[in-house]
Amino acid sequence: MSKKSAKTHDAAISRRRFLESAGAAGLATAIVSLAGTARAQTKASKNAVMYRGTPNGGRRCSGCIYFQPGKRACTRVAGDISPNGWCAIWRKR
Ligand code: SF4
């Protein structure tokens, strides 16, 4: 193989490696993005967070940042959520 031919060959390999790397990076980004979406859509079960339908002192779902007023729902816990309920991941609104 001549020197010029070897350079052309090396350039082709570098270009191919770059494209393969870019493809792999794009795929990895897509996978991480999908994983983030799946995680965001997963809610804990009531049992997992020790949910109960009664307040804990002055703490109740209606005063929690995760409660969705008017929906009887929570962004973190699955199922019907009473505004008077409470669970272990309660956070002041
Ligand atoms: S206390 Fe907060 S996180 Fe727990 S169920 Fe009620 S609204 Fe959801």
Question: What are the salient characteristics of this protein?
Answer:
rod-shaped; High-Potential Iron-Sulfur Protein, Chain A; 93 residues; mainly alpha; binds iron/sulfur cluster
Q: Care to describe what's here?
A:
The structure is a single chain. Helices cover 42% and strands 4% of the residues. With 93 residues, the chain is mainly alpha-helical. The protein folds into two domains: 42 residues; 51 residues, High-Potential Iron-Sulfur Protein, Chain A, CATH 4.10.490. It has a two-stranded antiparallel sheet with strand order 1-2. A hairpin with a 4-residue loop joins strand 1 and strand 2. It is rod-shaped and about 80 Å long. About 6% of the residues have low confidence. The site of iron/sulfur cluster has 15 residues, from loops. Iron/sulfur cluster binds next to loops.
